[in-house]
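Problem: given the chain below (504 residues), write out its structure.
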Amino acid sequence: MDNFNALMDGFAAILTPGNLLIALIGVTIGTAVGVLPGLGTAMAVALLLPITYGMEPTQAFIMFGGIFYGGMYGGSTTSILLNTPGQSSSVVTVLEGFKMAKAGRGGQALATAAIGSFVAGLIATTALVLVTPITVQFAITLGAPDYFAIMVLALVATSSVLGASRIRGFASLLVGLIIGTIGIDAVTGQQRLTYGVAELASGVDVIIVAVGVFAVGEALWTAARLKVAGDDVIPVGRVWMGRSDWKRSWGPWLRGSALGFPFGAVPAGGAELPTFLSYITERRLSKHKKEFGHGAIEGVAGPEAANNASAAGTMVPMLALGLPVNATAAVMLAAFQNYGIQPGPLLFEKESALVWTMIASLFVGNVMLLVLNLPLIPLWVKLLRIPKPYLYAGILFFASMGAYAVNAQPFDLFLLLTLGLVGLAMRRFGLPVLPLIVGLILGPMAERQARMALQLSGGDLGGLVGGPVSWTVYGIIALIALWPLVTLTRRRLARKREAEPVSV
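Solution.
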């Protein structure tokens, strides 16, 4: 009942003209960013971090939440009309959505994507309200060794799952951990990796890293691969759904929501896997199997619902444990830290008004997105006609202004360009960006928890292993680390059996 009352207070806070306007701005920016291929919500939040310094924390996170949800909505537009996913989580939507658009059913595809996102957002945000307080109660019982183990699991899982290979994932993580150690050690007072540069003594600001790697790196990468010829956009037509479309879509919406939320809450689970699983599920359950591959509406409804539900799922570990499970959550976690707020078990006690207002804003933003997406889709499509040189020149300008505004030091602009080149190199060689950001944020936090555990144990390494939770987590880490070896051994045994002569 206390949580329900807190949520009602959150609705009372969000339903004011000023906060509603901020929520509307957030979902509008998020939808626009989702529509434009290659930008991403993480880049948008990173660019807006310096701009929101003068805002109240509650208003800033209302905007960030709107951008996060809006990006999930907008990513389907280019998938359906341009055969190009606006977000990586919208890749599966391309399979059936673009075929529907080519067959003249783009309006139905866009409608089921928008309504499915609304249904999934409503269900998943309700689950967020119910699950997060339970997670907080569990987190309160954890000690320093348990937290250290969970953070190590997040680092290992994020690095091993993402990217073309585990080596690339761990290389990206190593870069993030190195950047996170730059500055003065809080315990010994010694400078680490500053090389005598006074500006590095206070460490590298997370905002500059996020803006440099995401925004500048993406702009340079796009410029290096820019095509002169533009892509043809399929006309939208009227956005509507017939009775048959409604009948075929409601089941995938519910199943996609059920798949997306739990995967979103798992470190490195993301939205890519549940959207793919949703597509496979609908293909098996559908009575119209022959339409798959030629424009089946179930192949759009299910994955888009899973995509949006996973967005709410990522909020659970971020708010309850302080663990980011995707790039946008990592940048939002950096925003919490810049406001002097530490996400985790005590967040609901110390910043109750902020948290519940933010959660209430997700409900409100979800309604706004439905209203924005259905009638205004033709307007969003016009964004696709903006010349990319102009678009990314504007991004570089705002990235530079935002980075300079953090500390008002020219050195930060040099650092921004250097990190942009690092982001460009990572994209060139297939290194995922998320492990770098997660390593940068969680690395110092894991170090602090490890030191605390070792101090409590008098320097004994056994102090890093606490109760059953840490033992279980270390077991999962061992399984993740050894799984490639198990897979390789099974393949070798299978080849050996095939090579053995068959006795007659």
